[in-house]
Amino acid sequence: MAGSRIGCVPSWPSYGATPAYRKIFEHHGWGDVADGLRAALGGPNPALGPSLVADEILDTFSVRATWEDAAGTLRARYEGIATSILPYPVDGPITTGDDRRRWADVARKLRADDDER
Residues 32, 53: contact at Cβ < 8 Å? Predict the structure, then answer.
């Protein structure tokens, strides 16, 4: 999960290029980035898009953590805001036993933290 930036970034140009996300990017002061993503996606070099997605943008729209820190990082970000969290795996669907076990461990840690509160 810690190295997931590599897996996550390629999808952001297509998100950021949409009119709906442009408004969100603009809200954060990144309207020019959304325009660049749209131009890159429709231009001769769509592979340029990921280079436009800075860490600040990625960190605004996603959570990056090690598996060991995932529950605490998610809680710190969403406590008092969200009542449930749906994992959006960057490397494809959660299909392997390891993926399921890792996410189950994160869920157990979150529930255990809730029980202690």
Answer: no
pLDDT tens digits, one per residue of 76-94: 999 999 988 887 765 666 6
Annotated domain spans of the chain: 1-64, 66-117
Phi, psi for 22 (deg, rounded to 5): -60, -40
Judge whether residue 3 has pLDDT over 50: no
Cβ(106)–Cβ(99) below 8 Å: no
Global confidence as pTM:
0.71
CA distance 25 to 34: 6
Q: What is the DSSP string of 7-71?
A: HHGGGHHHHHTSHHHHHHHHHTT-HHHHHHHHHHHHSS-GGGGGGG--HHHHHHH-----TTTHH
